[in-house]
Write a structure and sequence with these properties.
This protein is α+β, with helices and mostly antiparallel strands and 774 residues long. The protein has 4 domains: 1-47 and 227-366, no CATH class; 57-226, no CATH class; 377-487 and 646-773, no CATH class; 497-626, no CATH class. Strand 17 (515-526) and strand 18 form a beta hairpin. Helix 6 packs antiparallel against helix 15 (454-492). The chain crosses the membrane at residues 17-39, 233-258, 288-310, 330-348, 379-399, 405-428, 456-477, 651-670, 701-726, 738-757. Residues 240-357, 652-765 form the ABC3 transporter permease C-terminal domain.
């Protein structure tokens, strides 16, 4: 406690020296807390039922695909993954439930998309329950009932149907319409099937082959996308929290290193007056604990607000259902606080290690002169980190799935940046080679400063390099994937028109139309592995998949075509039998007809349209039409099926890390400039004008930005080349020149601003006063 008290006293007297570390730790705590909140929501989040709120229990099909794996030693484990489409029940289950002793009522339901609405049969209104406020229930095929939020009155028309009733209720997160029972069954497109059955009163067991949903489980059944969102939040929250923590440690180590560097004379004096290395380490560690606690508490509190904001953004982007509420518990703030304090303590101990070990006289000597010698631990750790980064880059170049490649990409860029930071003094020496004689007296002073203080320069280069490397990697990994997918889609689409949601029969009757291909988008699973898929009525006049082996001649029921990536993963080739699970859980065994090269543009799996159309929630799909010289209404450009699944969500989430690195840049440069108040005052006393001093600082900053831009770009290019080689087959990343120029311009503007503001503040003090007070 004595050390903590002494540390507290020094903090009170040297607030400015610890301000940068405080800001860095506060931001780190907020970022880690927000990411952990997303992770916890994925693990523990629940969805309240809306449509099924009035039914005590719901019986439905299993909405998971399950697989039992052998763990060895006779033990097995069953794993489950959510289905992409809703699994339906045979209608005979409804009869079985009605014959169950104690059951008084069974309400069958069918669910289907109807434009922006969710359609049902009126027979299932009792599940909520819905009641008629105006008009009556639908009875004929052309009649429809809308909910209270639709803004339509009895007698209005909605997509060709006459509104005959308006309900007294509306659901919070979905627009609901009802049809007559017979019409709803026809529109649903699953003859002899129902999507669910509500049972009154509750039963304890579901019939064989079905699943009983009660309580909050009814919400998970009603909102199947919520289950997929939970899985996404788990992976995204975990990856972001880990990446944020690594970035935070890197930034905090740099900030503490700079802070201790500026206090080096003070710590050296402590050694000179008989303070032992252990006492110095304990003092620095105590200061770090105090700063960590002071920054971690408000940072963790701010992280709760940041988590709420992130959740609202994900909801607005459609990545998370609105009714999947964010879980707010003490765990994320506490974990963020502990992580922050631990990071601060570790960073301070690492930064003060050398100063505490050397002799007092040497410490005073090093405080007076920045020799720029590379410590022994850096000479050992640097090559080891470079070797690790090279190994990780090679691993990344072999990954061809986005789920595996994305986190490894971030980790590779980070490891390269850490290696560069450890070897930073060597990079700082290279900055001395930048010619500045053309800049006159200010250039002369800037060049001398760059040569005299390589360690201080290295502390500034680290966050700048980190920001450039991470920003370029995050932005251009997305553009690389998107450009490759678009290129393949454009090369393989031979159709003259792409018509979403159009009727194939009507289009085929138009004069001049030569070929029409129906296309549905879905996903399938081989085992538990998920693959993007399309279902088509294949016609080479509208689509060219880039066949590399096998043939699409006679492609139809019983056939499947695979991309080269999928075929390699699954060890399948033309003529082999492929066992897969369709989007709604229906198993299928198909013969591999062909292997194609344009998997990024069209999906990894191509299935027959007739096989899939009864196993998707929305069978509307898209038409590819070959009709040269014919104008068709509603045509749209064909979109690639892959790239990032949610690029906007990825940009928002990873954008926080970019923002954090930008704050670190401002923080570090402001600290570095403020710490040179005495030096600037001496220059003023020696006759240097205020304008010359500011110009000297700008030149130094521009040299640092130049070195960091080159280093960060090299790190990003190496990482992106490995990413592209694995994911797209090309090691040449797609980097839009304008976007890259904006990144460098933003880094330059940020660095100049973070240097100019504290410099102007320091120059406001009279030189003599500044020299005497520091």
């Amino acid at each position: 406690m004595e050390v903590i008290g002494f540390a507290w006293k020094t903090l009170r007297d040297r607030k400015g020296a610890f301000a940068g570390a405080f800001v860095a730790l506060l931001c780190a705590a907020a970022l880690v807390c927000a990411c952990l909140m997303l992770l916890e929501t994925g693990l523990r989040g629940s969805v309240s039922p809306e449509r099924y709120a009035g039914a005590p229990v719901i019986v439905a099909a299993d909405q998971f695909v399950r697989e039992t794996v052998d763990k060895g030693d006779g033990e097995t484990k069953t794993k489950a993954k959510p289905l992409a489409e809703r699994a339906w029940l045979p209608e005979s289950v409804v009869g079985t439930l009605r014959r169950t002793p104690g059951v008084s009522k069974v309400v069958a339901e069918v669910t289907f998309p109807f434009g922006p609405y969710t359609g049902h049969g009126w027979e299932s209104a009792a599940l909520t329950p819905f009641t008629i406020a105006r008009g009556r229930e639908p009875r004929a095929g052309g009649e429809i009932v809308v909910d209270a939020r639709a803004g339509l009155e009895v007698g209005a028309r909605l997509r060709g149907y006459r509104v005959v009733g308006v309900t007294a209720q509306a659901l919070p997160s979905q627009d609901t319409v009802f049809f007559s029972t017979a019409q709803a069954r026809r529109l649903a497109g699953h003859p002899g099937m129902v999507s669910a059955a509500g049972v009154f009163p509750a039963v304890a067991r579901a019939p064989q082959g079905t699943v009983l949903y009660a309580g909050e489980e009814r919400g998970r059944l009603e909102f199947l996308d919520a289950e997929q969102a939970r899985v996404k939040l788990i992976s995204m929250g975990g990856a972001l929290a880990g990446t944020s923590l690594i970035v935070a440690i890197l930034v905090v180590v740099g900030t503490f290193a700079l802070s201790i560097q500026q206090r080096q004379r003070e710590l050296a004096l402590l050694r000179a007056v008989a303070a032992t290395p252990r006492q110095v380490r304990r003092l620095v560690g105590g200061q770090a604990l105090v700063v960590g606690l002071l920054a971690g508490v408000p940072g963790a509190a701010a992280g709760v607000g940041l988590g709420l904001w992130l959740h609202s953004i994900f909801v607005s982007l459609g990545a998370t259902p609105a009714n999947l509420s964010l879980v707010v518990s003490p765990f994320p703030p506490l974990a963020a606080l502990l992580a922050t304090v631990a990071a601060a303590w570790a960073a301070a101990r690492v930064s003060a290690r050398r100063l505490a070990r050397i002799r007092p006289v040497e410490a005073l000597g090093e405080a007076a002169l920045d020799g720029g010698r590379l410590p022994r631990w850096r000479l050992v750790a640097g090559p080891v980190l470079v070797a690790g980064a090279v190994a990780l880059t090679l691993v990344l170049s072999g990954l061809d799935t986005e789920a595996a490649a994305t986190p490894v990409t971030m980790l590779t860029a980070l490891l390269w940046t850490v290696a560069v930071s450890v070897l930073g003094p060597l990079l700082a020496r290279a900055v001395r080679l930048v010619p500045l004689p053309w800049a006159g007296g200010s250039g002369f002073l800037a060049a001398r400063n760059l040569r005299a203080t390589p360690r201080a320069l290295a502390a500034v280069l680290s966050p700048l390099t980190l920001m450039v490397a991470m920003t370029c990697t995050i932005l251009f990994a997305q553009t690389t994937m998107g450009a490759a997918a678009q290129e393949q889609a454009a090369a393989g689409t031979r159709a003259d028109h792409v018509l979403p949601g159009a009727s194939a029969e009507e289009i085929q009757r138009i004069p001049g139309v030569q070929a029409v291909t129906r296309v549905l988008r879905t996903s399938v699973r081989f085992g538990l592995d998920k693959y993007q898929a399309q279902a088509v009525t294949y016609d080479p006049r509208t689509m060219d998949l880039g066949i590399v082996s096998g043939t699409m001649d006679g492609f139809g029921p019983g056939s499947v075509a695979l991309s080269g990536t999928a075929a390699a993963h699954l060890s399948l080739s033309p003529g082999d039998q492929a066992r897969l699970t369709l989007g709604d859980g229906t198993p299928a065994t198909l013969k591999v007809a062909a292997v194609y090269s344009r998997g990024l543009g069209f999906g990894d799996v191509t299935l027959p349209y007739e096989l899939v159309r009864g196993h998707v929630d929305d069978p509307a799909g898209t038409l590819l039409v070959s009709a040269p010289g014919v104008t068709l209404p509603g045509a749209a450009p064909e979109a690639a099926t892959t790239g990032s699944a949610d690029p906007q969500v990825t940009f928002v989430a990873l954008g926080l890390i970019i923002a954090f690195t930008a704050i670190a840049v401002v923080n570090t440069l402001a600290m570095a400039t403020s710490g040179r108040a005495r030096e600037l005052a001496v220059l003023r006393l020696a006759g240097t004008t205020r304008r010359q001093v500011l110009r000297m600082l700008r030149l130094e900053t521009l040299c640092a930005v130049l070195a960091s831009a080159v280093t960060g770009t090299v790190v990003a290019v190496v990482t992106l080349a490995a990413f592209g080689a694995g994911m797209t087959g090309s090691a040449v990343p797609y980097v839009p020149p304008v976007a890259y120029a904006l990144v460098i311009a933003a880094a330059t503007a940020l660095a100049l601003l973070a240097t100019a503001l504290p410099a102007r503040l320091a120059l406001r003090t009279r030189p003599a006063e500044a020299v005497s007070s520091t």
